[in-house]
What does this fold into?
Amino acid sequence: MASDLSSTPPPPPARSPAPRAPLTIAPMRLADLSAVMELEVRCFNSPWSLDVYRRELTRNPRAFYRVVRPADPPARPDLPPLLAYGGCWITGDECHVMTIATHPEWRRRLLGEWLLLDLLAEARLRAAAVCTLEVRAGNTAAIRLYEKLGFQEVGRRPSYYPTTAHAPREDALIMTLFELNTGAVWRPLIQRRREVETAIDRGFSGSS
Ligand SMILES: CC(C)(COP(=O)(O)OP(=O)(O)OC[C@H]1O[C@@H](n2cnc3c(N)ncnc32)[C@H](O)[C@@H]1OP(=O)(O)O)[C@@H](O)C(=O)NCCC(=O)NCCS
It folds into this structure.
């Protein structure tokens, strides 16, 4: 039977596409390494070498690394190519945060927290039940970040960080987030990730 075209309802008005998030988190690639190295030497007293990163990306199946970058770099010449980066190892049901850093000029904008929440999400997907890390005893910024997401100090390694040209010998605190595989721990982290993403979308939506 022929359809009655005269009674076909008009198509709904075209919806404008949802605005694209200004920043994205993506797996670290070899092509990111020159930007990673530029930040590495600015962020750490004992920076990792390019070779270490290359090995981590190409020969370590237990490792995963992420970067925070502009979603559309040509549209955001006001932003650097990388705003933050970090990575973890998974051993059995344990995740170890190997490194995390935010571009020195883009700190205190929740990027470190967003990235750490993303690393924890990936760790959880890979069946991690606990997440642990070492941090310099005097690194207040990092310690506060870890505490904010529920990490607890569980031990101390005396003089773990040797003297360098830029920093004296220092103890490491061992910090652990337990029961990552339980809803009681994970649900608030998911909720926090949504809040952080909303805040970052808002904070980075125009030229900053
Ligand atoms: C630690 C580091 C990654 C934090 O990155 P960031 O993007 O500035 O952190 P965020 O903006 O996401 O901060 C999240 C929370 O961490 C804590 N925090 C971050 N920087 C802080 C600071 N300077 N002082 C106190 N608390 C701080 C706060 O609780 C903050 O939440 P709030 O802003 O609501 O108070 C960054 O300082 C860095 O790159 N440091 C050098 C590298 C390093 O030490 N890495 C850790 C190795 S273990």
Summary: Strands lie at 23-27, 63-70, 84-91, 94-102, 130-136, 152-161, 170-177. The longest helix spans residues 183-203.
